[in-house]
Design goal:
two-stranded antiparallel sheet, 2 domains, alpha+beta, 60s Ribosomal Protein L30, Chain: A
Length: 223
């Protein structure tokens, strides 16, 4: 039975990669094929599929999938320089947009406040935020050796399960937008934390506003 698992898993990974070529146009709401992504996914299907089958944890699986698809990993002193350049371009692109940028070692965290990204109770991205996410995608496409963790967060007001679903939906909306701008979806890890990771008190309106956010954590692709 175990001998059958790897081929079946490979088929599943292949199907997932091909499906990921179908994206949602954030302007029209219609399905479309990400043409630039299609060729890359088909060309790297074998390597990416094999890579994704081994390794512990989602980060390790993404690393193996991307390396297997021919995207070179960063090593040594080049890692810090790569992230420095990426941070500088993000700061230039996102200046004055309301998006917070924080650096922690070789990780970059983008904090997108919920009040400028989504309407209350909605997972549809505000039209005015398209250009901001477009700037993020521009930098991500240039620095393609970066893993992208997209996480939705809410305040603690309301029913807990609803908040989890909303945070997940918002994170997936951001991921779909980035993918529609040709960012390789194999780089993504998408999740919703609901109210579990507040950055401020939920007892005040200002604190709750800070807790409603989507974060994008960027980390270098390494061996």
């Amino acid at each position: 039975m175990k001998r059958l698992l790897k081929p079946l898993a490979f088929v599943a990974v292949g199907s997932l990669l091909l499906t990921s070529c179908q994206t949602i146009n954030p302007y029209t709401g219609e399905a479309q094929t990400a043409k630039a992504t299609t060729g890359a996914l088909l060309g790297g299907l074998l390597g990416a599929g094999v890579g994704a089958l081994s390794g512990e944890g989602s980060t390790d699986r993404r690393q193996k999938a991307l390396i297997g698809a021919g995207i070179g990993a960063l090593t040594g002193g080049g890692i810090g320089a790569y992230m420095d350049k990426q941070e500088a371009e993000l700061r230039q692109e996102l200046e004055g947009t309301g998006v917070g940028i924080r650096r922690n070692g070789n990780e970059i965290n983008l904090v997108m406040p919920g009040d400028i990204t989504f309407a209350t109770g909605s997972s549809s991205i505000n039209g005015g935020f398209y250009d901001v996410l477009g700037s993020v995608s521009k930098v991500l496409n240039k620095y393609n050796r970066t893993l992208v963790d997209i996480t939705g967060h809410t305040d603690s007001v309301g029913e807990r399960n609803y908040n989890y679903r909303l945070s997940q939906s918002r994170a997936h909306s951001v991921a779909r937008f980035l993918q529609s701008r040709r960012v390789n979806a194999n780089r993504f890890r998408v999740s919703g934390q609901g109210p579990d990771t507040p950055v401020a008190t939920n007892s005040t309106a200002s604190g709750r506003q800070l807790n409603r956010r989507v974060t994008i954590q960027l980390a270098p692709l390494t061996q």
